[in-house]
Amino acid sequence: MGDPTVFGIEQKSESFEPSAVDESRLRKPPPKYPGLRMFRRNKAAVFGAILLIVILFITFVLPLFFDGERTERVGGIHLAPGAEGSTMFGTDYLGRDVGRIVMEGGSATLKVAGLAALVIVGLGTTIGALAGYYGGWVDNVLMRITEFFQVLPGLLFAIVIVALYGASTKTIVLAIGLIAWPTIARLVRAEFLRQKNLEYVKAARAIGANDARIIFKTIMPNTLPVVIVQSTLVMGSAILFEAGLAFLGLSNPKDLSWGFYIGANRNYFLSNWWGVTFPGLMIFFTVLSLSLIGDGLQDAVNPKLRGR
Amino acid sequence: MKQIAVRILQSLGLILAVIVLNFMLVHLAPGDAVDSLAGTAGEMSPETTQRLRDQYGLDEPVTTQLFTYVGNVLQGDLGVSIANNNRPVTEMIGERLWPTVLLSITALTFAVVLGVIVGTFAARRPESGFSHGTTVFALVGFAMPAFWTGYLLLTVFSKNLGWLPISGMEDLRFQGGWFAKQWDLAKHLVLPALSLGLIYIAAYSRLSRASMLEVLESDYVRTARAKGLGERSVLFKHALRNGIIPIVTVLGLQFGAILSGAILVETVFAWPGVGKLAFEAVVERDTNVLLGVLFLVSLTVIIANLVTDLIYRLIDPRIRVSGPSNG
Q1: Chain A contacts in chain B segment 243-262 (CB below 8 A)
Q2: Do the interacting molecules here have an ipTM over 0.90?
Q3: Which of A83, A262, B22, B39 has the most CB atoms lying inside 10 A of its own CB?
Q4: pTM of this prediction?
């Protein structure tokens, strides 16, 4: 074919031969995952990730090393942590081991929060995408609905739903899902509004992609960074919502989740501080770890906001 | 002017939507009011249940029931409490309203004032230890469940130090003049307001720090500095006026969250407000009371949002002209 011609100017290919380049003067190749490096550089985020791993280990792995049911009586009632005949984290009003109960108490909370986060992200991205992509009356209707759910007092609405329809995992997940999706919907909508007129979307349309393909295959992947950051934060609030519901007794009593256990111990907190404190610490550290991770991801995805 | 009218109409629409939602929640739930009555009574003959269904209009078409319900609510009739000898729900909520209003307003005021002050000073020196401390505090404050914070505060300040009362709104054995009584109330108020407000102090300090960081980089702040204004004047007169706008925006929306949070905090401190009423209703499965509280709180949030929006127009002339952007 010979040398290519651009605008009539002959392009000399010899000068681009690999042999002509001094290898040592080449710049280092760009990092494969710049985001990951950015995340790693954020020490708080790394701390958050480690914290979360520890919590997951305590909740799902550690209980395997213990025999018997966690609801078994291990000694006298209200024994302080480390007291004679007591355990490391004390015993509760039924003489059960607080440490043992709190250890597994996270499994129900984390399950509910994880599923709720899925519902929230699913609902939020779908509604946000449709509103942002189609605009016009679709956007108008969907945004009115979003507004309505934003105005509803979240926790109270969830309480009413769970009180009316029963405290099953399904109901609790749906209740939390229903109250928390608007934030993600608004963010995704804003992203779609921004991106739908960009060149790459026009290109996709030009080659004949239909709406569904453009929404889910073309634009959606580009909103992922925003969605991923937000979903870690959403997961944190989902845990707080679940804990609040459980504290009021709106959860499966058999799960003995962290929030529920605080509620169960609340009448004795004046003489038994450990029954309320330890489950609360677990909620605190879990939400904290997710916030730290979310912040780290935010920095990685959107470096402009760093330190804000 | 036209925009304000539109906003008010929208708010009315939202209120109507909440009423319809309330109706749907009950209508779709398994069993009806008579079933739960029969459950409380232990046993009920089919004739009695039929008579009650006729009496409550439960056999009417859904749309008729809906219209009756909407009509009742608009007249201030939220039904009766089954667990409390058929007392009107409106009356029960009315009794409990003031403590909740006092608690939430105190918590919110605490949060806005402290949050904005902390955030503003943090933004002045973004790399200082104080500023980083604010960020840490915001994360910690968000992660603490309000009811748990309540128990920690109670353990430290009431049980160990003995400074503040443990529960309720007033000392029942209290005797003394008006001022002493207010002092007593204030002492009861401190811990609940702090547990409820902590998360918002954290949130607002972070939000105002971010907002002020942005504002302090702007040209008009540089101009203000360049013309030799004192630091205090630059910060509080020029920068804060714009820096505070995002806070006002979220205030209205968070009113609902703070009233929801009050349910948990009031339960912890036995604060005799609407939140504790809601908790009692959960325990007693008293549907009408729960729905009444949901309606009332939603109504408050909608009104708070409307008011925020109007204030927003006052402090930001740009919106008065073009209307707030939906973003």
Answers
A1: 253, 256-257, 259-261
A2: no
A3: A262
A4: 0.83
